[in-house]
Amino acid sequence: MAAATDKPMLRFITCGSVDDGKSTLIGRLLFEANCVFDDQMQALESDSKKFGTQGERTDLALLVDGLQAEREQGITIDVAYRFFATAQRKFVVADTPGHEQYTRNMATGASTAQLAVLLVDARKGVLTQTRRHSRIVAMMGVRHVVLAINKMDLVGFEPAVFARIDADYRAFAADLGFASIQAIPLSALEGDNVLVASTHTPWYSGPTLMTYLNQIEVGAPEQAAPFRMPVQWVNRPNADFRGFCGRIAQGEVRPGDCVKVLPSGVVTQVKAIVVWQGERDRAVAADSITLTLTHEVALGRGDVLVAADDAPEVADQFEARLLWMSELALLPGRSYWLKLHTQEVSASVTDIKYREDIDSGKHLAAKSLGLNEIALVNLSLAQPVVFEPYAQNRTLGGFVLIDKLSFETVAAGMISFALRRAANIHWQALTVDRVARAASLQQTPRCIWFTGLSGSGKSTIANLLEKRLHAQGRHTYILDGDNLRHGLNRDLGFTDADRVENIRRVAEVARLMVDAGLLVLVSFISPFRAERELARSLFAPGEFVEVFVDASLAECERRDPKGLYAKARRGELKNFTGIDSPYEPPLAPDVHLHSDGADSQALAEQLENFLHG
Fold first, then answer.
1. What are the tens digits of pLDDT across the range 397-420?
2. In 10 A of CB 341, how many CB atoms?
3. Residue 360, C-beta contacts closer than 8 angstroms, at least 6 positions apart
4. Catalytic: 526?
5. Domain region containing 244
6. 416 near 431, Cβ under 8 Å?
7. Residues 267, 273: Cα–Cα separation, whole Å
8. Residue that finishes a domain, picked among 367, 401, 424
9. What is the pLDDT of residues 474-511, one digit of tens each?
10. Active-site residue (options: 48, 134, 335, 526)
């Protein structure tokens, strides 16, 4: 066991287009490396008769394809990790799906890989999905690629086929930044050039796949880099012990080392390294440890302990590469949760600089991103985070975006660098604050946000409410959707992306008005819950009142005060909410006004009573 522990480890991924033989190749590696136990072999032979795709032969792909759906369909859906070892090193291999709809799972496998075995069917050559997977592994920081040209037995082990695919792929991958590309002719099904050199390829003088995996050097160990440890948990089992738990992202640490706490910048020393066996005199990258410090310092989950003399940066705006993994489009301005190591903050994409063409790599203009698209974007975060560029540190540079309502992971991203201009912008201290402004107006400022379909009565009720409040001496202002589109938002259309930006601008203006001490009434359809929640997040608790003016679509069409529904039905008005663009009603509005057949004066009075209550 000690000898096995000391072996170096290589983490690699198998990827490529569907049916290129990824699972069969891993099964062959496991089988020929004697990593399949007798009971597994018996089960495999039984499963091959039921689920196999190789006739009477044992289907080695079933060693990896474990899900019922995978076996029934003969495809890989989820990421499957397998562990094996040779005399030279240990391996963790991730078998990833080839289908385009499961690309997000492939990206998951690539995120921890040091090398990619990219399979290509010799009969088909380099396909779009081959190129997509290549761009993703390059994006994820994988710098070594094995171009496994598989199923050579089906093209008669023809050297010209191998040479053509090798040349095609190298021409495509020239700008992806790979440190090495090793092409190997294979038959995963028959075992040619997997462990043993094939007699069918006397024209090939390179290594077998296993020989190459045993010998490849993938770079300097992470232990050589400066110390970094994101804090996951503060351990306080009793009043006498306070430890900071985490997994070392890179570098090493010893008792007595000077460390800095980021983002606070406090410097202290390591008192002890604690693990479940006791105390240690050294810990290195990938070790999960608890550190005790010589000083009482305030830090918690999301903070990062780093080498005091070589600290990473802290920033709140970045340029980053993004792989979009959701079927719902990315809309610039929409707020998501960004999870970067143990930090979680609110963030939004402020600008899509360009989208990458999968086949050519050309930079294309884009206002939104769809499933599996790759882009270069600018990000703005609600607060500064500790980071390093992804090319330098995967842990401190790689992040995911999470939808705030569904909690779906919608994107994977890699930080390129901080936007320096953000560091030059600071809050200006003002002598007169919002409390003083509100006191001078003798009122409690609020944002009263009306949402509902066109024709539901939002503007009518908002206007009636303002008249009531004005008569009482209140200082008010109405921000109406149509009015603002004549000025502030005149450059915006009605696409989903423009609707998001429309609401973002209005919410910021409303926040400034509340800061000025006003009662601001916002009357917008604001169809998306995510943007209404973003607006709410700009205000202090109790300052934002969401009012759902609820009228049925049929009633709104019957009223149709502006003739818009009729135009939308005739196809003259595109992206009209309720007809060909969705409306997401509030799940828990502060005030719910049912306006079907109701008197607008009565509804305004009901809302006024709520505000005074």
1. 999 999 988 899 999 999 999 986
2. 25
3. none
4. yes
5. 222-307
6. no
7. 17
8. 424
9. 999 999 888 888 888 888 888 888 888 888 899 999 99
10. 526
